[in-house]
Queue: 2 jobs
Job 1
Amino acid sequence: MADPWQRAYDFAVEVARKAGEEVRKAGESEIKIMTKSSTVDLVTKTDERVEKIIIGSLKEEFGPDAHCFIGEESVAKGEACILTDKPTWIIDPVDGTTNFVHGFPFVAVSIAFAVNKELEFGVVYSCLEDKMYKARKGKGAFCNDEKIEVSDVTAINKSIIISEHGTDRSPEKVNKIFSTMQKILCIPVHGLRGSGTAATNMCLVATGAVEAFFEIGIHCWDIAAGAVIVKEAGGVLLDVDGGPFDLMSRRMVSANNEVIAKRIIKEIEIFPAVRDDAP
Ligand code: IPD
């Protein structure tokens, strides 16, 4: 049977490239910064404009009502964030908005597609590095058309781990984040890193540059595309309590293998995060 979503996958790559070019160009002119949930949760006109470009292009290609959309900036403006069985695009137009604002050189366009609540493919365009990561369920993961694979390290003390601080700066949460990081650092691991974009962090797991990335507080649009890429590169996705990965839960461990994932999970101090699909 013909692959029903190949056209959508190929088109997603084209749209991600076009969106990334817009982001790159916008970074060269003055950036108007606004805030969302807190003074450190940044958004720019570029985030909003690029999301409109992506959704507009997809509607033009596939018809205005053929698919559903979950987009970071549309949700911020009050649209629902519910994943149904219908074909759904999950979009972060500028993942790493803080990086974008500061000129820190990791910014990604993240586009994923789910059907029957299962992720079919993911595209992450790290637009300042010009790296196009993509993966289609069952067909492997690629960076600029070269196949990528996770690392084969199983010894935690030979690993590099990524985590981020997110945008919730309440002292209790920050304490838990730092306490977790301290414990992991002192295992000891080779290093702790963070690129400032969840999508890129997941691609770094997929290429084998690092062994794992975990975070509590991310959103489905930050990680949906990266989730397919990590899995297709041979990696694993788990909840921070070791249970199954849940895209809407705002918590995730992505790793090269279960040994590394479970070793990290032992150290994670969990704190609550309101689900993306909470009523
Ligand atoms: C953020 C980035 C960051 C992560 C935050 C996300 P945004 O996404 O992915 O790495 O730590 O949790 O919200 O807001 O730049 O699209």
Job 2
Amino acid sequence: VIEMKGLYSALMCSFDEQGQVNEQGLREIVRHNIDVSKIDGLYVNGSTGENFLISTDQKKQIFDIVKDEVGSDVKLIAQIGALNIDEAVELGQFATELGYDAISAVTPFYYKFDFEEVTDYYTTILENVDNDLIIYSIPALTGVNMNLEQFGELFEHEKVIGVKFTAPDFFLLERIRHTFPDKLIYSGFDEMLLSASVLNVDGAIGSTFNVNGQRAKQIFELAQSGQIDEAREVQKVTNDLIGEILDNGLYQTIKEILKHKDVGAGTCRKPMKSLTEDGVIRAKQMAEKYL
Ligand code: NGF
């Protein structure tokens, strides 16, 4: 698992006005992440990839294009979680055959599944997909809150190599880190990267790394080498930017900033709305001020 450590962009996808994948734009986003943001890996078809708004065929198309563009330049994690368990398995097998380094699956959401059902979901995926798996925990969007013991039960499976921990619960994060030193923990909230890094997470997965990857890497590396004052300064600038991005519309603004970097980031899938004219201007100002 050591080689899977590091910073991963939660990859954006470029869509055209009809909601179709824009292959050229997607390739440009990938290249920007590798060549400019300097990230260690890509987390493909996560929330930031608008995964829950697209078809199975589109998910496969994206896995395919990204792998083709990346080759073995950086690590690749395929988010395959879906409410339809057959789709999750099918996507897991598909990404594994393409050569993705690991799969990840969001906890099943919408219905109020109990932990037995959550465990059954992961077991079904693990039994049918020959790859390592990273649990994707994002309680604010899924409503699924797991405690230390429940993470421990999932971690008992040797193919479960870690968790993408997208929650502001630093007590639980510290307990997981302390209790499971051999599992990979990725921090999910970019605005809390320094705090998570101080707790010795193995890496992070974030949407804003698509544009702000270099600063994220600085924060992570400065924290690892104990240069906390310096890391705090970079987190401060980062959070100025993230605050402006969140105020303006998260994914739309990141795409608009990418466009100012000559990356064909396209639009967001409906029902996500487009930026207003003012929003476009604000994104341009962010690109000029921060990047
Ligand atoms: O976008 C969200 C939703 N979270 C991302 C990230 O955890 C999602 C986070 O970077 C992700 O990795 C994925 O695409 O699956 C935030 O956008 C960022 O910290 C700003 O709040 O919560």
